[in-house]
Design brief:
Layout lengths: L9 H13 L4 H15 L8 E4 L3 H5 L6 E3 L12 E7 L8 H11 E12 L5 H15 L12 H10 L3 E14 L2 H11 L15 H15 L6 E13 L18 H5 L9
Parallel strand pairs: 1-2, 1-3, 3-4
Antiparallel strand pairs: 4-6, 5-6
Helix pairs in contact: 5-8
Length: 273
Amino acid sequence: MQETTPLTDQAALTAHRARAAKAPALFLHEAARDEVQDRLAMVKKSFTDVAVVSPFPDVWSCAFPDAGIIPDNDVLDLQEKSRDLVVHAMCLHWANDPVGQLIQCRRALRPDGLLLVLCLGGQTLHELRAALGQAEIETTGGLSPRIAPMGEIRDLGALLQRAGLALPVADNWPLTVTYDTPWHLMRDLRAMGETNALATRLRHPTRRAVLWRAAEIYAQSFAQPDNRIPATFEIVTLTGWAPDASQPQPLRPGSATARLADALGARETRLKD
């Protein structure tokens, strides 16, 4: 049986995160943390056994001082049915097995426990992707993997059902940040620990000509009237519950006791054969 190449070079990802921790720019994680707090405030349920999956524990420990903060390893340090809330925070896009991550979170939940996942979606850094791709093709005649692939909201929502979670919901919200130049964006990506850690990446430094051309294309294609350049981060939120008999259940097909046409006050007409 042929082994599949992992998505992420874990050694490189760990090194990037360690470098970022020295002078971090973690505003995405802070925005995700605030979003989690807002959503939990609307849930009519208290949570006492909380786990947060995050590579940056300091961001989350202040908001959830009693939570267990665990790293996003391939095998999560979660005991079965030990939690009533698990937050998987801004790291699913680096997972070699995202479905496996969600299954582990679901197994860690007690019945009617809540899983909240915040991750980067497919529109993230679309401006930088386009500029780097065009610049590399123009300069080298080829194209190499530079930014981690990130799922579209429909695909990410389907992962909840595959993981066996009930009442799945997926939604997204864009966060647009502006910078003086593309170089300032790239500096922030280093300070986030989000630079290229793909296992299939080129193992030599990017040619300076590619980077300069990408910066030119970025500014020419996306600059705003004030000459600042935007960077889009799409944050997808996935919500699912561990199955429990107390949750709303769908009715069996054919069990309805009222007609939709009567409820709508509409006239029902037969379709032609």
